[in-house]
Automatic annotation (TrEMBL):
Component of the ubiquinol-cytochrome c reductase complex (complex III or cytochrome b-c1 complex), which is a respiratory chain that generates an electrochemical potential coupled to ATP synthesis. It is found in: Cell membrane. SUPFAM superfamilies: ISP domain. The gene is petA. It is an enzyme of class 7 (translocase). The main subunits of complex b-c1 are: cytochrome b, cytochrome c1 and the Rieske protein. This is Ubiquinol-cytochrome c reductase iron-sulfur subunit. Pfam families: Rieske, UCR_Fe-S_N. Its main location: membrane. NCBIfam families: Rieske_proteo. It comes from the Bacteria. Transmembrane segments: none annotated. The Rieske protein is a high potential 2Fe-2S protein. It comes from Billgrantia sulfidoxydans.
């Protein structure tokens, strides 16, 4: 007679364990987002809470992508750099590194926001966010510093001369869904005139 409570208890535990084991494959198949992301599904980013000078990182196609909100002072420094002779490709002329609709030295759809793949074009390390001028040498204007072999990029993802990385960081396809919604992985809709 005393076995009954034990059997009930054992059944509940076994049921619980069984439920846990069966739930894992169910959840894995029920959440396609990770697989879809790796396969290239677009990623929406809300930049509403991004303060000037801040950046966030999202994952797209298994790669980190930065969205940086550039300040007026960053934009001024980028303009100075364009004509400084310090950059390898200041006007972003290497066509593989950005979609055709991203033109000009700021390498963006809206000058306030940089969207760039956070993978060094030398051997694939993730560079560091180093916004403070002078923090990576006296002439450092703020930008991205790769800790692996010292490549440097500005806040348009443009590579400096005399570093191992040969070309600018990649700008992925993206579009604005609203003033503060960016969709990465999708080209802008063609405008009709
Ligand atoms: S991987 Fe960045 S400098 Fe080598």
């Amino acid at each position: 007679m005393k076995r009954r409570p034990f059997l009930v208890g054992a059944t509940v535990v076994a049921g619980g364990v069984g439920a846990a084991f069966t739930a894992v494959p169910f959840i894995a198949s029920w959440q396609p987002s990770a697989r879809a992301r790796a396969a290239g599904a677009p990623v929406e980013v809300d930049v509403d809470k991004l303060e000037p000078g801040q950046q966030l990182t999202v994952e797209w196609r298994g790669k980190p992508v930065w969205v940086l909100r550039r300040t007026p002072s960053i934009l001024e420094r980028l303009a100075t750099l364009t004509d400084s002779g310090r950059l390898r490709d200041p006007l972003a002329e290497v066509a593989t590194q950005q979609p055709a609709y991203i033109t000009g030295p700021l390498r963006s759809l809206e000058e306030e926001y940089l969207v760039v793949v956070a993978i060094c074009t030398h051997l694939g390390c993730v560079p560091l966010f180093r916004p403070e001028p002078g923090s990576v040498g006296d002439d450092w204007p703020g930008g991205y510093f790769c800790p692996c072999h010292g490549s440097r990029f500005d806040f348009a993802g443009r590579v400096f001369k005399a570093v191992p990385a040969p070309i600018n960081l990649e700008v992925p396809p993206y579009r604005f869904l609203s003033d503060h919604q960016i969709e990465i992985g999708v080209d802008p809709k063609p405008t009709t005139s």
